[in-house]
Amino acid sequence: MSDDRVKTESFLGLMSEAMPDVRPINIEPRVDLVKPRLPEDTLKAKRAEAVKAEVEEYNRLSGEFIEPVDPHDILAFKRAGIQNGVYRNLRLGKYPIDAQLDLHNLTVEQARAAVFGFIEECCSYDIRTALITHGKGEGRKPQPALLKSCIAHWLPQLIEVQAFHSAQKQHGGVGATYLLIRKSDKQKLENAEQHHKRR
User: Fold this and answer.
1) Phi and psi for 159 in degrees, rounded to 5?
2) Which of 41, 42, 133, 138 is 20 to 30 A from 93, comparing alpha carbons?
3) Are 181 and 134 in contact (CB under 8 A)?
4) What ranges do the domains of the chain cover?
């Protein structure tokens, strides 16, 4: 038997003699290691709230006070960097309309979701020019031109919208709006490659 082992056993023997009544303490666990399962209804409600919060956060269209516009007002907007010639062609309806959205008979909330989804879809399909028909809302009481006012307020908030202008008469006049949608990264790359080939 080694000296170290003899010393250890002697020490343990002395300890036992000195403290004959000492027993290990039983400690009750303070935290439940298994989470209690929530009822299915509660889980569904929590999931629905999480999805709603995510959608509201992602949908950037503000529902704050919207400045009313007159039913016959012309809507016009252009971001810095958009060439005047491009904007002029948009304003005159010279670009082909690749996608259309009609907001007639929709509530403000329905229109808000529709506009947001429409712009997203245009971007995903590389659509550059589109038309939103919102109507003039002349006879609407008590808020005339409500959807038109919303469009004027919402579109500048979407960075994908580079410019917009009230449409020409054949496309709905002041009851509709032309949109110029930002190029996707894929489209920018393709344009750069084509430009490079021409050199």
Assistant:
1) -65, -20
2) 138
3) no
4) 76-189
